[in-house]
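pasting Malonyl-CoA-acyl carrier protein transacylase, mitochondrial for the record, 117 residues
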Amino acid sequence: MQSKVSRQGQSAVHTVLMKPARERFKAKLRDFLPRMSRPRCTIFMSSRPVDWNTDPEIVLELLSEELALPLKWKESVEALGRVGLEDLFECGPSKELKAILKRIDADVWSRTCNVEV
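structre below
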């Protein structure tokens, strides 16, 4: 793997610059495959505004693909709104997702809670 310098605040994640890292990432994810089970709820991925509840092998493939695909926030948030979402939890120290949601869909934003982990 080779790193590339980007301007402050920018990242190569979710760009074609991550394609070389994709296979190594996928190999690491495979280590978890024996312990993975099917999702118990619908999952929305940021680069794919498609919900799925499927075989862990496919989940692994989608996760590794996501590393080098552009994010589709608007489509993802719209998909969340269409399925009758009751609550959305953003897990992490920042409130970036909630800020994005406010600009896209005020109703989804109002049902979002940030949980610091």
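The helical segments are 19-30, 56-66, 73-82, 96-104, 106-110.
The mean pLDDT is 80.
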